[in-house]
Amino acid sequence: MPGPIITEAKTQPDALSIVRFGTVSLKAKGMKEQIVKQGDLFGEMALLGLTMDGLRMRTAKAVTVVEICSLSAKDFEELLVVRPGGLVLVRELCRLHLLVFLSCTTELFVTSQIPPRRMSLLPPQIISMRQSGM
């Protein structure tokens, strides 16, 4: 029996999620499934506006018994203001997540339309991969 849906693709992001314990499946149409476990987080890219359309990219579904801690958009923004070093950490984490995400869906990424303002947020190695048609 499939587990309950935690967040759904193509919905407005309102929080990022951290897996306290258990296993969660992240899946989107045309992409390989990604499994996240204790200590991993998801939903941060949509929350930061780093997705192509500003919406969630993947559906998160519980695979096992799971406990999720959610950090609301408002609390997340406050945290970044209070702890400026947190922004650097989050930015690097997002870049790593983007690389993992793209490794699951290179063809989709290379052929999709990304608004110029969002392209400027991507790390240089991703932009060159896209331009080379990799």
Give your account of this protein's structure.
The protein has 134 residues and is of the alpha+beta class. The protein has a single domain, classed as Jelly Rolls (Sandwich). It contains 6 helices and 7 strands. The strands form 2 sheets. A 4-stranded antiparallel β-sheet has the order 1-6-3-4, with no helix packed on it. Strands 5-2-7 form a 3-stranded antiparallel β-sheet. A hairpin with a 6-residue loop joins strand 3 and strand 4. The longest helix has 20 residues. The N and C termini lie far apart (38 Å). 16% of the residues are buried.
Compose a concise summary of this entry:
A hairpin with a 6-residue loop joins strand 3 (24-27) and strand 4 (34-36). The strands form two sheets. A four-stranded antiparallel β-sheet has the order 1-6-3-4, with no helix packed on it. Strands 5-2-7 form a three-stranded antiparallel β-sheet. The protein has 134 residues and is of the alpha+beta class.
The CATH architecture name reads Sandwich
Our count of domains comes out at 1
Distance between the termini: 38 Å
Gross morphology is: globular
Gyration radius, rounded: 15 Å
Identify low-pLDDT runs. 106-111
Q: Profile the largest sheet.
A: 4 strands, antiparallel
Helix content: 25-40%
Main-sheet strand order equals 1-6-3-4
Number of helices: 6
Structural class determined from secondary elements:
alpha+beta
Give the CATH superfamily.
Jelly Rolls
The CATH class designation is Mainly Beta
CATH topology: Jelly Rolls
Order of helices and strands: EEEEEHEEHHHHH
Number of strands: 7
**What is the mean pLDDT?**
77
Binned strand content: 15-25%
